[in-house]
Amino acid sequence: MGGETISADNPYRIVDLTLDEKIVVRRGPDVEHERKVAIYDLLEENNFQPVGAEPGPYDLHLSIEENRLVFDVRLASATGETYGKVMLSLTPFRRLIKDYFLICESYYDAIKTAAPAQIEAIDMGRRGLHNEGSQLLKDRLEGKIEMDFDTSRRLFTLICVLHIKG
Questions:
Q1: Is the preceding omega at residue 116 within 30 degrees of 0, hence cis?
Q2: Which residue intervals of the chain are DSSP H helices?
Q3: What is the C-alpha to C-alpha distance for residues 40 and 34, in angstroms, rounded to an integer?
Q4: Crossing angle of helices 29-44 and 149-162, rounded to 10°
Q5: What torsion, rounded to 10 degrees, do the Cα atoms 115, 116, 119, 125 define?
Q6: Per-residue tens of pLDDT for the chain, all 166 residues
Q7: DSSP β-ladder status, 14-19 and 58-65
Q8: Which pTM does this prediction carry?
Q9: Beta-carbon contacts of residue 165 (< 8 Å; ≥ 6 apart)
Q10: Bridge partner list, 72
Q11: Residue 75 three-state SS
């Protein structure tokens, strides 16, 4: 599923996304920018196919409940018919998300004062962790929701945003 062109008439795509942010926290401008870009890019181009679901397009509500990541998938129609919820344990993601936050913090600090070579090295590490998290998400959803790697990357960014605590 990776690398192919995804047309706007593809029925297996997300057309609306909601993040459940019950505990709204103040986020820095860098994080808020990443959130907006991830949502924009995701809605512009994605391939999202719940296994056994009717062709979409879909509305997706992402939340965290009781240490589980919840994908609440609905058909994007007047009826808003529910496909269902796919729940994943967050335990396999915890270390990756913690490490990702630490390296992002280092990156944002480095872009203010560090030499270009240092910034590039930190950014390579940041992208590597992001790719690892994206692949883990794709693997954990296998057999439940099929998606391309770019869709998984954008969703991983949003999962990280949901983890930010005040």
A1: no
A2: 29-44, 91-113, 116-140, 149-162
A3: 10
A4: 150
A5: -130
A6: 444 444 567 899 999 999 886 655 556 777 778 888 889 999 999 999 999 888 889 999 999 988 899 999 998 876 667 778 999 999 999 999 999 889 988 988 898 999 999 999 999 999 999 999 999 999 999 999 999 999 999 999 999 888 775 4
A7: parallel
A8: 0.85
A9: 23, 25
A10: 61, 85
A11: strand
Per the structure block, which two tokens stand in for 36?
A: 């907006």
Which of 165, 161, 162, 164 is CA-nearest to residue 63?
162
Q: How far apart are CA 29 and CA 10, in angstroms?
A: 33
Residue 98, amino acid: K
Is there a contact between 2 and 148 (Cβ–Cβ < 8 Å)? Answer: yes
